[in-house]
Amino acid sequence: MSVIPDAVPEGRIYHWLRWQTLIWIIACAFMLYFRWAAIHWYSLPDTDDNMRMAQVHALLNGQGWYDLRQYKLNPPLGFDIHWSRLVDLPIAGIELLVRPFAGTAVAEKTAAAIAPMLPLWVAMAAMGLAVRRLVARDSFAVAAGLILCCSSAMLMFSPLRVDHHGWQLAMLVLTIAGLADRNTMRGGLTMGLSSAVSLTIGLELMPFLVIAGAASVLRWVWDMDEAARLRGYALALAGGCALGYAGFTSYASSVARCDVLSPVWLSAMVTAGVLAFGLSYLTAANTRIRLGAAAIGGAFLVAAFALVWPQCLGRPEQISPELASKWFNNIREAKPLYTQPWTTFVMVVALPVVGVIGSFWTAWHARAQGRFGAWAPVALVSLVSLLLVLWQTRQGPAAQLMAVPGATALVWYLVPKFRNSGSMLMRTVGVVAVILLVSGVAVPVAVDQFPAAPVTARSKAIGRANARCATLPALAPIARLPATTIFTFVDMGPRLINVTPQKAIAGPYHRNGDAILDVHHAFDGTPETAHAIMVKHGATLLLTCPNMSESTIYRSRSPNGFYSRLAKGEKFAWLEPMPLPAGSPLLLWRIR
């Protein structure tokens, strides 16, 4: 069976989109059902989700559109977060709609539950477009099912995951849909606009977008008829980034910053757009000439960036070596995937490996039908995605989604082969085996057959502390106290400022680096050092969560440091214990 589609009648497009929307609604219903308890207790899964809600609260309470300074962390100065208001819009909109009917608390929970599922529809619709163009007209349902099997990616679309990654993933899939579009100008415009929106939100998926852009250029090198796609991409990328900068870049990011769509990356994207636009008008019939021109343009772009913005050639966070060693290098998602437990490694890479195999196999067989140019960029993006996830665990969701077109092609080709077999056993077992293996559903089952690592008393205690300390019941007594500044763990900061009127010192954000180091110096240093740092920040209370993951770092790194001595029960004259309800997982002191 061919995996290359016939032309799609325009009148049928909305027919498949209705079915795609129905699949999305069913998936959302299941996610809401399984996450209902977490929604009820407003158990946002990550520090970034709490910070996002805190930013939305500030916006709804009158903070300026271009003022992204979070004043409840590191008071009274606050710190400028490197995010965008773009993702705040759907959250704030839902909250404003619900608040008059159900009150603020319910409105917040509703917004946090619904907003993350909206980009899932965009991702499904965009993937449906991509596979209809690449595989077959009716393969959208297979692609939707495979998206639901992307375990890492689906976490980014689940209720309460209000951070910006879901929207970035949706824009990445839309970029692939543009690559696959037979209407070259429309495809290029789609690619450029989706890339610009993603960059306006954040730079996390920059490597994927660079590869997609490079694939578009190489496609033009291969086939001059792709000039319109390259031209549309160039115009939309440059113009979209300019509009994104004008509409969403904060005051603090309007200077030369490397971690956001600042003048640094705006100039780079506009220059890239101008170069690509110029290349699209090169009429040389010789492929080598076009390849040479593309290489010269790429070299000029890289050289100009290095000369004008040399400070941005390294880490975009621009953090100090001390901050990297004490904090950033301990972030799990920033580590290479091969440093994670083998079970995590296998479950994340299973689908990307299948996607690479499927996309390259299909690209090879598509040559006979003149569709190699459509599949080759998808295969390239799929391969680079697999390599990127080995570099950083946080790239896992994108790598899984980029595997869906190739995996869909495999399912679409192999299932009919088994289904048409003369053996009933082959028809049954073969089809089931293909679906289980290609989708990766069989991987968790296989992993469960191996004995799990023994659960120790220490790991149980850490798990209990992580689960309990940030809950609403645990923080309710803290919320009832008069508003003040509380010195606490870095990872407790965003949750504390989101669900209580209190202020904190630090959150896990690189622009908050000096405050992060102050927290580490306090807990690692002597009691005298800790007291001086707390007084410097105007903190009146000290809040800890014994056995929370962050606390184990201080205890293992500084066994004679302030926190280790405090955790062992040592008393200090400048700390006065304050009562909390029986069974509270937290400890609270007044700082004298």
From TrEMBL:
The membrane-spanning stretches of this chain are 21-43, 111-131, 140-160, 196-221, 233-252, 264-284, 291-309, 342-360, 372-391, 397-415, 427-447
Keyword field: Membrane, Transmembrane, Transmembrane helix
Q: Which residues are in coiled coils?
A: none
Name used for this protein in its record: AcrB/AcrD/AcrF family protein
